[in-house]
Amino acid sequence: MQPGSCTSPSWKAGRLLAQLQSRFQRASNTYSATVAGNTVIFTIEPENIKAIFSEQFEDFDVGWIRRRAFAPSIGDVLITSDGGKWHQQRAMLRPAFNKQQYSDFAFYEGDIDQLLRAIPADGSTIDLAPLFYKHALTLASRLLFDEPMATLNPDFAASSHRFIEAFDRVNRGNERRILMGRLLPLMPRDRDYEAGCQVIHEYGDNIVQRALAYRKSWTSSGVAEGGSDKPRDRYVFLQELAKEIDDPLELRNHLIGMLLVGSETTASLLSSCLGLLSGRPQLWARLRKEALDLGIPTSEGVKSFASLSHVINEGMLSFTDHRRD
After folding, report:
1. Distance CA 177, CA 169 (A)
2. Rounded CA gap, 48 and 50, in Å?
3. pTM
4. Nearest Cα to Cα of residue 79 among 317, 262, 245, 312
5. What are the two backbone dihedrals, phi and then psi, of residue 129, each rounded to the nearest 5 degrees?
6. Are 152 and 128 in contact (CB under 8 A)?
7. How high is the mean pLDDT in each 10-residue block of the chain (325 residues)?
8. What share of residues in the chain are helix, strand, coil (percent, to 5)?
9. Angle, in degrees to the nearest 10, between helices 63-74 and 157-180
């Protein structure tokens, strides 16, 4: 069935998700639509999703449209790769997904406190999505290269505002470029998008240069070549990646790509879970009681927090944007 094409007014007005949900209701769990001259298959069928992300993963790819759309911002990285290239990059980036690296919850405490302080205590209405996005960027930057952006800290917000604004502009530009599909070559030049790419590239280049300097000054054993025996406090993803890659452009592309994945998906999941809980006060009260009973959170304690796991899984399944990352 072809209920029609995705229209830019719905996307611009933030109604694209509601429009897609309406189409599933009118059509079926799987339907096709014409988007910018491309036939696109939309599905919420559980068996199809299981096949794409698990049982028949190798039979699907991200396709040339995403690669071409993302090329100016992040080039050829994990989320734009297929086949052997994807497996190679996934293996290289695997340490970044090692949960043991992030099991020290005290490491995040300051960032979480900043998020809570940014929420009005008087009960007034607030849009949490922008706060979650800034919070996710702070966490991702801290985890990836140990230099948090302090996006919610009023003392440092001005210094990170330029990057955040540019990063958001580039993300929106990438979405528009994907929607253009085969018609992308006909898309008018987007100078705002190009300027945003330049800002995030300059930011990434500065971080990468420091990582490459680390590579020169430390041996693989973690001891400085100059003789210092200062131990490394914790795993820093970009510093470790710089041991494998010495090309600044490739390092920068991986860095920006990981920031993209780490911020958007985390912010989306937080918004989804809070949206679900906002209409279920009894479930919220149950989670709060179990969290208080848990006390100071630990890695092992959170693993046993079954109710929270169920809410997170529901948030991912219900609303979060799933990409072949």
Report:
1. 12
2. 5
3. 0.78
4. 262
5. -55, -50
6. no
7. 42 68 88 81 89 85 87 89 80 69 74 88 88 88 79 66 88 89 89 95 91 74 46 70 88 90 85 88 91 80 83 76 47
8. 70, 5, 25
9. 150
Integer Rg of the chain from CA: 21
CA angle 283, 130, 107 (to 5 degrees): 75
Give the C-alpha separation, 6 to 13, whole Å: 12
User: Which tokens is 171 given?
Assistant: 């993300």
SS3 224: strand
Element (H, E) at 166: helix 157-180
| Residue 237 CB burial class (10 angstroms; 0-12, 13-18, ≥19) | buried
Residue 262: how many other CB atoms lie within 10 Å: 19
- Please tell me the distance from the alpha carbon of residue 161 to that of residue 173, in angstroms, as a whole number: 18
Helix axes 128-145, 157-180, angle to 10 degrees: 100
CB-CB contact of 144 with 96 (8 Å):
yes
What is the residue-wise DSSP string for 55-68?
Answer: ITGGG---HHHHHH
In DSSP terms, which residues pair with 6 in a beta bridge? none
From 136, 130, 135, 174, select the one nearest 152 (Cα to Cα): 135
Backbone φ, ψ for residue 31 (5° rounding): -150, 165
Q: Return d(Cα 302, Cα 197) in angstroms, integer.
A: 38
257, 77 Cβ separation under 8 angstroms: yes
